[in-house]
Write a structure and sequence with these properties.
This protein is α/β, with parallel strands linked by helices and 503 residues long. The protein has three domains: 75 residues, Archaeosine Trna-guanine Transglycosylase, Chain: A, domain 4, CATH 2.30.130; 131 residues, Ribose 5-phosphate Isomerase B, Chain: A, CATH 3.40.1400; 229 residues. It contains 15 helices and 23 strands. The strands form six sheets. It has a seven-stranded parallel sheet with strand order 19-20-18-17-21-22-23, sandwiched between helices. α3 packs across α11 and α6 crosses α14.
Length: 503
């Protein structure tokens, strides 16, 4: 393994693959001081104000003169807002679709409405924080001993959150919460659902049921504490209703389903400078394989594609789709300005320690998770994704909030890349975690499903690692436990995005 990685001949920086002391030869230059692993050094003179280039793209501007061999990072690189012109549909690479008769399959749960689940949960949804304790108590009543009688049921899970009242009854925040609730209520990974409210909250359960035409039945119930004579009676009634659901949910069995029924949330968290070199391109390759099968990948985290959105607009299936993405970017610029923030709020301290200097650098690597196929649709947070292929859903960069939206949009699997390490997991959609570097994978092997660092240490190709990830998605979709599932993660990672003001 070389001690550096050059990503493009036009770049004026390279990435070092191991910590280097002063005086070490890298390409045609010599390091001017200590350079941490996965950080950058300049390979040419970069004058103050000139662009710093990586991935053949601008990742920032020199805040001072930078000499060849110098460490390039936050101390000498500054961020500037992106002000570029966008091109639409100029880089369309259509997938080679696999014939329907030859498509891969997985063992999934075919629901009465035709959708397909990868897990078989009973979900307890809350309309407001006031019913969170009741929902937790109901779910906690179903331990391993009782559930052992229902081997086809993966668990009873309470999805609780911190809002639902003290909010406007219309607008972005209210609509986003309603979409999340509807998305989880109708999610194919749920065999049954119990919705629990207080009764007087702004986010009324009845409004949701009326809006989306949801009817109560043997596997769908709604109740509220005020009409059920208080907390104790609500918990007792809720437990009784779940007990009635369990035998019905247990009747669900896995059957062969085409890979086209998979919708994968493409996510990254705790990134480092190798994320855009190993794990993200490999996941992008897996996404391309899935798209060729007729499946769907859903990229999100709008602030974390900032500075890379121009690459996605070129892949937009049409101009309208590309302009939807641009409009999201403009909304986020306004949103951060109104809240006295910056689009360069990321990278986080851990991202920076891992070698990422600006949000532009992070975004260019993050966008690689989406592969190379056309962008078929752009969706609001938690909005049902109806397009097949590569798509985008608006969300914050905060991982639990982002994944909550992706699951609400219909994702039945989550693929999560990380370079610093992560303890993330999700329900009802299982999450696989992909390590960007071998050192972290070895240290956190109990939490990581895939070692993409082997692309550097063992010279594995993007295609080899992408194939491995794709096969793991099929295996997990068929019931294989991911590392996060085995550790019991996912009960506390339901975090709907709170957009509006708390009143």
């Amino acid at each position: 393994m070389k001690n550096f990685i050059r990503l493009d001949k036009s770049d004026n920086v390279v990435i070092v693959t191991t910590a280097l002391a002063s005086g070490i030869a890298v390409e045609q230059v010599t390091t001017a001081g200590l350079v941490p692993r996965s950080h950058k050094i300049a390979t040419a003179i970069i004058k103050q104000g000139e662009a710093v280039r990586k991935y053949a793209q601008i990742i920032g501007y020199a805040s001072t003169d930078i000499a060849p061999g110098e460490h390039v990072h936050t101390h000498n690189v500054e961020f500037r807002n992106v002000k570029g012109e966008y091109k639409f549909s100029t880089d369309l690479r259509h997938p080679n679709f696999v014939a329907e008769t030859e498509r891969d399959t997985f063992m999934g749960y075919r629901r009465p409405n035709g959708s397909v689940g990868t897990r078989n949960y009973i979900g307890i949804l809350t309309s407001v924080n006031c019913s969170a304790t009741a929902a937790r108590m109901i779910a906690e009543a179903f331990g391993p001993e009782e559930l052992a009688n229902y081997p086809n049921v993966d668990g009873v899970v309470a999805f609780v959150h911190g809002t639902g009242c003290g909010m406007a009854g219309q607008g972005d925040g209210f609509e986003a919460l309603q979409r999340v609730m509807w998305g989880y209520a109708r999610h194919p990974n749920h065999a049954g659902v119990l919705m629990v409210g207080l009764g007087c909250e702004m986010n009324q359960i009845d409004w949701l049921l009326d809006m989306y035409g949801i009817k109560q039945g043997p596997l769908f119930h709604a109740m509220n504490i005020q009409e059920t004579e208080g907390l104790r009676k609500t918990v007792e009634t809720g437990i009784a209703r779940v007990r009635k659901m369990l035998p019905e949910a247990n009747k669900c069995v896995r059957e062969p389903c085409p890979a086209s029924e998979l919708m994968v949330a493409l996510q990254c968290g705790g990134s480092d400078a190798l994320s855009g070199v190993t794990a993200n391109p490999a996941l992008g390759y897996a996404c391309d394989l899935l798209v060729a099968q007729g499946g769907t990948g859903v990229l999100a985290e709008t602030p974390e594609i900032y500075g890379a959105e121009h690459l996605l607009t070129r892949r937009a299936a049409d101009e309208e789709t590309g302009k939807k993405l641009v409009n999201l970017i403009r909304w986020w610029e306004d949103y951060t300005e109104r809240n006295k923030g910056s689009m360069d709020n990321n990278p986080s301290p851990g991202n920076k320690k891992g070698g990422l200097s600006t949000i532009l650098e992070k975004s260019l690597g993050a966008a690689a998770k989406g592969g190379t196929t056309p962008l078929q649709g752009v969706y609001k947070y938690g909005e049902p994704v109806t397009s097949h292929g590569f798509t985008f859903m608006d969300s914050p960069g905060y991982d639990p909030a982002s994944v909550t939206g992706q699951i609400a949009s219909g994702c039945n699997l989550v693929a999560f890349t990380t370079g610093r390490g992560s303890a993330f997991g999700s329900k009802p959609a299982p999450c696989i975690k992909i390590a960007t570097n071998a050192e972290m994978y070895d240290r956190l092997h109990e939490d990581m499903d895939v070692n993409a660092g082997a692309m550097l240490t063992q010279n594995q190709s993007v295609s080899e690692k992408g194939e491995e990830i794709y096969q793991l998605l099929l295996d997990v979709a068929s019931g294989k436990q991911s590392k996060s599932e085995a550790l019991g993660l996912g009960d506390y990672e339901f975090v709907p995005w709170q957009i509006g003001a708390t009143m």
